[in-house]
Amino acid sequence: MAAATIKDVAREAKVSVASVSRALNDGRGVTAETSQRIREAATRLRYVPHAAARTLITRRTNTIGALLPDLYGEFFSELIRGIDLAARARGLHLLVSSSHDDADAAAAALRAMQGRVDGLLLMSPHADAAFLQQNLPHGLPTVLMNTRLAGADYCALSVDNDGGARLMVEHLLALGHRRIVFIQGPPGNRDATERELGYREALTSHSPDSPVAMLRGDFSEDSGYRAGQQVLAMRPRPDAVFAANDMMAIGCMAALRDAGICVPEEIAIGGFDDVPMARYVTPPLTTVQVHIAELGGQAMELLGEQIDNPDSVMAGIHRRVTAQLVVRVSSGAPLV
Amino acid sequence: MAAATIKDVAREAKVSVASVSRALNDGRGVTAETSQRIREAATRLRYVPHAAARTLITRRTNTIGALLPDLYGEFFSELIRGIDLAARARGLHLLVSSSHDDADAAAAALRAMQGRVDGLLLMSPHADAAFLQQNLPHGLPTVLMNTRLAGADYCALSVDNDGGARLMVEHLLALGHRRIVFIQGPPGNRDATERELGYREALTSHSPDSPVAMLRGDFSEDSGYRAGQQVLAMRPRPDAVFAANDMMAIGCMAALRDAGICVPEEIAIGGFDDVPMARYVTPPLTTVQVHIAELGGQAMELLGEQIDNPDSVMAGIHRRVTAQLVVRVSSGAPLV
DNA sequence: ACTCTTTATGAAAACGATTACGTTGGCGCC
DNA sequence: GGCGCCAACGTAATCGTTTTCATAAAGAGT
Q1: Inter-chain contact A53–B50, Cβ cutoff 8 Å?
Q2: Domains in chain B: ranges and CATH
Q3: Which residues in B lie closer than 8 A to residue A71 (C-beta atoms)?
Q4: Would you list the DSSP string of B69-91?
Q5: Predicted confidence (pLDDT) per residue in A274-329, tens digit
Q6: A122, B119, B289, B331 — which has fewest CB within 10 A?
């Protein structure tokens, strides 16, 4: 009742194990009729090659690992979906290890992946240069996702926060808004600082007269609400608010509503992320959308290339996935 | 530069490979000092046992597979989180394969898992008895999640939709509502029909005089909106609406608002799922929450037990994870 | 007809670990 | 002092596959 091995197939088809292997893999060096006989025997016995045995000799696991931090909600889903789809297209399996809050847990997980995978997709807030140097199995193809490491030693992929923020600011400027205030994310958060950078760049390059104004926030709805109250107190009052993420934009909108300010007529609002809720709030939120599945898929592509030709120098390659503007009511754009 | 093998460690510590294996595994049959020397040599060489080689001889992969359909949003995230956490606690790795829309893809994925995993977590809409009989590797521990298969041949785990729906109906009845209408989910959907069953049961057992009334829906917000319009046309008008999921409840609420009906003063509304948005809509939605991570975690527990003692007869065991009522404003409960 | 090449096939050596089984040496006990 | 026993350690078989090499047969070229 135990699973059939290649020997069983060989006996059944009255050939040697070598011929079975040849027939089932490249198919060369075996007569058509022998091959046929072998295939029949294999299906009859429901033969499936033993993955571990094959790995041992070929040095390939046909599996890639994804090491992720503790992620919530649809970001995680979409990321995995993108990775899984791209991996399946290459005939690779996906070993995931998520919810690594501290560096030690991540290091342990990394070590455990050793020898189980052909390549690694790594997204970790703890992944500084020393950590990688210490824990990353040397010679294992790796793609870094959304890390703060711009270093030339690894292949990396990240979201174009910068460009996305510029799109939003350009959009607000095009609508005639001039005094645009930015609600910051948590200090030290990479996405947040990149978005802030995009805001600054777009403003200074397209509208040098506009004041650069920041309010503190931490990505939470509450912090957005408090920022909204500060907006009300500013003189002259801003035309528009650009929050570093949607939840703060939603919080800010609530503060404005509570004060009797109309959005977008009196103040326009923009967010970032396009969370599912964004289209349901009133008014629907103009925001910047990032195709997360594409982030995962492209990372997988990059990794696939590294695996297929290990000699190619892909270290230092750094790609970005683009962000799109999603125009809804909150920015005050004329409905076409 | 290649990874160190057990032979390298043996040479380094001047012992045989057998002693290395003993020292690093159970540790018995080796002197404390020899063991010490071996450990040092191992860390010096950064030795990590080759997973495939170990699997080949021990017949254990220390990996479990999760075969999932195409899931969206936080359901997937939470499920994986629950599974991953429980698996890690047992020292198991997690191989995921998701987005299987059709039965053929699922079957192929199932075959590919063969020999790569010690057990299987399976959630598939295509998993009828014949499919399982055909494709499930015989003798592989398996836990079915949320399948319509109540059969005694497998170990299964599912959400207590029935009980959750009863909680909601009892809540609405306790608030004095008597004419409660139910918005159905897609026909054939197991969750939807179980929720409907719970609604019927609770109503007939706690308030036999209340009419059982259904409106068609398909889990989409639009279908909820249409159902809301039908609610408005009903005479006598219902006290309350219980939608089979949150999105329909939200759609229904929009229809009532558009007609100038106040929620919850004129009509109370309840949903199911507790999507993140539920707390942000106005008024915040009373709903039924299922701890999805727990579903994943418990499934993993069940699977773990099967793996640890393969002789135990766990087939036919069928557990349910409970649902909780989340009371918010939309049902009209007095704010305490 | 003889060699030379090509092709189908089988035998056997890897891959890196675990583990059953021998061997050795030290110790206690009579 | 001889016997047996036990702990520590080594030797070698084993898991299921791929792949190199050898071998034999067959076909081609002269």
Answers
A1: no
A2: 6-49 (1.10.260.40), 63-159+293-320 (3.40.50.2300), 161-291+325-331 (3.40.50.2300)
A3: 77
A4: ----HHHHHHHHHHHHHHHHHTT
A5: 988 898 888 999 999 999 999 999 999 999 999 988 777 777 788 999 999 999 99
A6: B289
